[in-house]
Structure formats: structure tokens, C-alpha cells
Write a structure and sequence with these properties.
The complex is a heterodimer of chains A (398) and B (221). Chain A is an alpha/beta fold and 398 residues long. Chain A contains twelve helices and 14 strands. In chain A, α11 links the parallel β13 and β14. The longest helix of chain A is centred in the C-terminal third of the chain and has 18 residues. In chain B, α5 packs across α7. Chain B has a seven-stranded mixed sheet with strand order 3-2-1-4-5-7-6, with helices on both faces. Chain B has one domain: 3-Layer(aba) Sandwich (Rossmann fold). Classes of the chains: A alpha/beta (398), B alpha/beta (221).
Chain lengths: 398, 221
């Protein structure tokens, strides 16, 4: 996603962040395994999370935030590694649409990621070394199961709401079918009920870029003291293009030169867009684990909600008690509006209460992370309506 | 195809408003809805009727609206509204999903009014339709003496940019009800000042003096 950081993180530091993060951590022992779709019990394991705001006495004002592929739990605080603002500070905070003066916001790091929740960069207790490729392949449903265990631990039975874009939206959708009675309202943004062939294809290119880097060493780069930076950077560069749009790239860069007046007749970054992508790639590898990238892209590829209900999506949400608000963006070609519309049709056929808005923007898939006034107004309005229905009083105005 | 009731949409912009500031035609529609019912407003515009129904009748209200601006405005107000087209998207809704399906100033803007009306009776146990009566005397006079397509306060469009492509009179609408198998439970005509015409007046009287009509329908057994 969009960031521009330059902090260099030693691989040793990254392992430290994976095991002992700058976040509260819940550790689940061997008595509480996470049952994975792969048929494996993962234990022990841990979940790192951030919270914002205060849980009310009735425990009825909790909102779960689900992060996207390369996001993490630091949605609304300064990132401990990059020192950048949280990835959803436009959305989450005091007086923001997800108002932390009104709601209790929980933002966990997903299973398989690398910021403190157990994933391939975490230490495998059996070997004392990072899991690497010994880590089991995980799914969106596994992420959601782990989040449910976190909520149990926090003593929260029903979520007032939950929100997420992209892979976060997939988690939201999975929640509403796995635990419908625990989700009062849901905001799946810029997502789909299954990953399209084109999206799987993009992910495969990214994974192959990582695996083609000789420093990847079949995932054992921590043990061998290497780091597949180039492979991961190339994966990030390719993926980043898919998060934007032709129009946005043109508006931002056009064919403008980077710090030069003429073509150099070389393979230097003559164009600003090249320089921008290189920067996106190199800054990403400083905060993200290459193996995590493989596992999380795989989890998205495997996601197919319709599969659970014999291809009839409407059955997934038959008599769903959840209030839905779906949002898509006109220039998002990774998760185009048609995907959200298919969800709306299924929800309507199942009789669910659903709102759906498409927002006009040229900013592509990444629009859900940006300061889009219409997006913010819709989320605020939807949550206000849901809060009224839930009997949550607005906070005393400042 | 437009089903919008937006700021830029001039239809009903000058409509007479009741004491609470609500449009009289919307008050007439709301008066036909039982409290607490489950309601689908097809072509809900900026959500004025849905909001009125939620606030005064305590309904569980949903909406479909074609224009993106209308949808986004509704959702930001906390209303459950989806972007969609009455002509194509009603087919996705299951039978008997709602107590009332409402077409408020929408039917005349659909491509296939009969199909839309049939879906409405399938999806809802009741249907409520409000529409401008093209049989009103002022419209007849404009055509007869002016020789041009009529324009009124509620229908201010030139013929070439009007969203309203299937005008009908009260008499025409009753014919559609017969054809589509709709039973007329209740009907009312509003005059130019938004007052209901005499209840026991003959249909020809309503068709001549009613500027708008509101019908409560149900499926014929």
C-alpha cells in the first residue's frame, strides 16, 4: 500500500518484531490450538493487536479492523518500524468515521503475517528457528478463526461492526458467514467473495519473483543469513501497479523524467514512475517478510466463499442478521464493482439488510486507504445508523 | 433510464409540502404503510420517503436507486440503499420478501412498467404506486390548445430530456392493474394543492382533476 519509508531493518530486528512486537500480544498455548483448514493444529501461537478507544460496560461498542495483504495492526498509531502514520488514520481515530471516542477498535495482525502474530518469520518452538516454509499454508478462514479466539480472550461476544478493504474485506465477508450472530454490522470494502484468475495470476508472478531470488534459499534465508530483497521488491513493484490505475499513474507521473532533462539511453530510472516503483519496492522489503508475502497471497488465492455453500452465494447469507455496507471504487480493476454487485445480489436474495455504494475516483484499489471524502461520509453515516439501531449513544460532543 | 429524485432532478421539486415539510405525495404514500412493516422503496432518490417512513412509521426500510449520487447520499444518512436498476434488478429479490414495495414517482421512468409492476407484486405483499396523472385537465389543455408536450411544476422537463418515458393517466393505470393482475386496495388522487379529492367521486372526475395519484395494490388471489 502507499508508504514511503526509508528505515532499514536488520533481519534480526524483523525476527524480533515477529516474536516480540511493539504491540500487546495474546499467547495461546498447546491447550488452545488454532485448527487450520490445512488440517493442522497450530500451537502454540500468538496474536499481536492494537486497540483504540474504550470498551463500554455493555461490551457492545467493539469494532474489528481487518488489514490488507501488506498492512498490519498499526492502523491508527505511528508505525513502530517505519515511524509513519497508521495506514487508516483517515478512517480511525477521535472524531473520525470510526470514532475512537465512541467505539472500541481492535486491530489485530493476521495469522501468517510478520508483525507479531504467528507466521513464517516467527520462531518455530520445535526448532528454535524461524518457521520459514515449514509454516502451514493458511487461509482467510484461519485468520478469522484466530480473530474469534482473540475476541473470546477479550471477552467480546458480539462486534458492533467490522471493517476492512481488499484482503481485510475478505475477512469481513468470512466473518459474516462463519460467525453471523457475532457481527452486528459489516463494512467489506473493495473486495470479492473469491479471488479472480487474474488476481491469482498477479500473485503468482509476485511469488515467482521472490522465489527466483537466489537469496531466498527455499525460504531459509534467516538461517543462511541472506535476504531476498530484490525478489520481494520486484513482487511489490508489480503488485503496486495493480493497486493504482492508468489514470492515476498518468496524473501523477505522465512521462516526466526523474532528475534529468533527457533520456540517458540506459536502463537507469529515467522516468519518475520507474523511480517511484523502485522506491516502493525497496521500502517495502525493509518492513515485510518475503515468506509472509508468499503465505498471505496464497491465502487470498484460496479464498472462495461460494465454495462453502455449493456455489450458491445467497445461501451463505440466508437470513443473515448482519447489516451490510459494501463499497467499491470505479477505477479499481483488482476488485471491480461487479464483484461487490455480485455480493449485493446474493445478500438481497438472502434477504439481508444491505447498502452498497460505488465511489467515483481515479485512485484505483488503493482508494480505500486514502482521504476520499465520500468514502469517509458513507462509513460515518452507515455506522451512525447502525449505532442508533444498536442503541449506542453518540459521545458527548466536544 | 433515470430514477432519480435529486437536487439536479427537477421532477417534484416544486411539489406541495405538508405541515412537517414533507411532500404531500410522500405523506399520502406513508399513510398507506402499516407501522413496523418491511419496505422496499424502488427509485428512492435521496431517501426522503425512506427517511419519512423510518421516522414516522418505524419501518424496516430498504431502497434501490439508479443514480450513484442518490445512493451515496442515502447510505451516508444511514439508510440501507443499494445502487440498482428497477428494470433489471428486481428479478434478484425473492418472493414475498417485503410487506410493501413502493414505486414513488418511479413507474413512469421505467422501460417496462408492466414487468416492474409484476415484480413488485411478487416481491411485496402490497405495492404502492404514486405517479403524475397525465389525464389532468391542465395537461389536456396544453396539448389541445398549446399543441405541445405539457409541462407543469411537477413535470418541468422538455420532452427531449425528460426521464419520464411512460406517462399514463389514472384510467390507463387502472387498465395496467387489470392486465398485470393487481387488485386495487385503495386509491387516492391529489389536486394541485396536494389535497385529496373527494373519496367517493367517480373515476373520470379523479382522472380530470387529480394531478397525482397514489394506489395501494395487492396480488389478485
Amino acid at each position: 500500500m502507499v508508504e514511503a519509508d526509508t528505515v532499514t531493518l536488520d533481519p534480526v530486528d524483523r525476527v524480533r518484531e515477529a516474536d516480540n512486537p511493539h504491540s500487546p500480544v495474546v499467547r495461546f498455548g498447546t491447550d488452545k490450538p488454532l485448527r487450520l483448514d490445512a488440517g493442522i493444529d497450530l500451537c502454540p501461537f500468538q496474536i499481536a493487536y492494537q486497540t483504540y478507544g474504550t470498551l463500554n460496560a455493555q461490551r457492545s461498542n467493539a469494532i474489528l479492523i481487518c488489514h490488507a495483504l501488506t498492512g498490519d495492526q498499526h492502523a491508527a498509531n505511528v508505525h513502530p518500524v517505519t515511524q509513519k502514520p497508521g495506514w487508516w488514520e483517515t478512517m480511525v481515530g477521535p472524531g473520525r468515521p470510526i470514532d475512537t471516542e465512541r467505539y472500541f477498535v481492535i486491530s489485530p495482525n493476521v495469522i501468517g503475517a510478520c508483525m507479531g502474530t504467528t507466521g513464517p518469520a516467527s520462531t518455530n518452538p520445535k526448532t528454535g528457528m524461524p518457521w520459514g516454509l515449514d509454516f502451514p499454508v493458511i487461509t482467510i478462514r484461519d485468520m478469522v478463526r484466530a480473530q474469534a479466539m482473540l475476541l473470546d480472550y477479550l471477552g467480546i461476544d458480539t462486534l458492533f461492526s467490522m471493517a476492512g478493504g481488499s484482503m481485510g474485506g475478505m475477512q469481513v465477508l468470512q466473518w459474516t458467514t462463519s460467525y453471523p450472530s457475532r457481527v452486528f454490522s459489516a463494512l467489506p470494502i473493495a473486495c470479492a467473495t473469491r479471488h479472480s484468475a487474474q488476481n491469482i495470476a498477479f500473485h503468482e508472478v509476485g511469488r515467482q519473483a521472490v522465489m527466483a531470488d537466489p537469496e531466498w534459499r527455499h525460504g531459509r534465508y534467516f538461517a543462511e543469513g541472506t535476504n531476498p530483497r530484490r525478489g520481494l521488491a520486484v513482487a511489490r513493484m508489480g503488485a503496486h501497479i495493480t493497486y493504482l490505475s492508468d489514470a492515476a499513474l498518468h496524473r501523477k507521473f505522465g512521462r516526466k523524467f526523474q532528475d534529468r532533462d533527457n533520456l540517458t539511453f540506459s536502463f537507469d530510472a529515467d522516468f519518475q514512475v520507474e523511480s517511484y516503483l523502485r522506491h516502493q519496492g525497496s521500502s517495502f522489503v525493509e518492513r515485510f517478510d518475503a515468506n509472509s508475502y508468499l503465505y498471505l497471497t496464497r491465502a487470498m488465492d484460496y479464498f472462495d466463499l461460494g465454495e462453502d455453500c455449493e456455489g450458491v452465494l445467497a445461501n451463505a447469507w440466508k437470513d443473515s442478521p448482519t447489516r451490510f455496507c459494501l463499497i467499491s471504487f470505479t477505477s479499481d480493476w483488482l476488485f471491480p464493482t461487479a464483484e461487490s454487485r455480485a455480493i449485493v445480489h446474493a445478500l438481497n436474495a438472502g434477504g439481508a439488510r444491505v447498502s452498497f455504494a460505488e465511489i467515483v475516483t481515479d485512485k484505483g484499489h488503493d482508494a480505500f486507504l486514502l482521504d476520499e471524502p465520500e468514502l469517509l461520509a458513507i462509513v460515518r453515516g452507515f455506522l451512525d445508523g447502525a449505532a442508533k439501531a444498536r442503541g449506542l449513544l453518540p459521545p458527548a460532543r466536544r | 433510464m433515470m430514477l432519480t429524485r435529486l437536487k439536479h432532478d427537477r421532477t417534484m421539486a416544486e411539489a406541495v409540502r405538508g405541515p412537517g415539510g414533507s411532500r404531500v405525495d410522500l405523506l399520502a404514500v406513508a399513510g398507506m404503510v402499516a407501522p413496523g412493516a418491511k419496505v422496499l422503496d424502488v427509485g428512492c432518490g435521496d431517501g426522503e420517503l425512506l427517511r419519512l417512513l423510518v421516522e414516522t412509521r418505524g419501518v424496516d426500510g430498504r431502497g434501490i436507486e439508479l443514480s450513484r449520487e442518490g445512493v451515496n447520499e442515502c447510505v451516508a444518512k444511514g439508510l440501507a440503499v443499494v445502487q440498482g436498476d428497477a428494470d433489471t434488478d428486481l428479478a434478484d429479490y425473492p418472493d414475498d420478501a417485503f410487506d410493501y414495495v413502493i414505486l414513488s414517482q418511479t413507474l413512469q421512468a421505467t422501460r417496462q412498467p408492466r414487468v416492474v409492476l409484476e415484480h413488485m407484486l411478487r416481491i411485496g405483499r402490497h405495492g404502492i404506486v404514486s405517479f403524475p396523472n397525465f389525464g389532468h385537465w391542465s395537461i389536456r389543455l396544453q396539448l389541445l390548445f398549446g399543441g405541445h408536450m405539457p409541462q407543469t411544476d411537477n413535470l418541468p422537463y422538455d420532452w427531449w430530456d425528460s426521464p419520464n418515458i411512460h406517462f399514463c393517466t389514472i384510467k390507463d393505470f387502472r387498465q395496467l392493474c387489470r392486465v398485470a393482475g393487481a387488485k386495487i386496495e385503495k386509491a387516492m388522487a391529489l389536486n394541485a394543492w396536494g389535497r385529496a379529492l373527494r373519496f367517493n367521486a367517480p373515476w373520470w372526475f379523479w382522472n380530470l382533476l387529480g394531478e397525482q395519484a397514489v394506489f395501494l395494490l395487492s396480488r389478485k388471489a
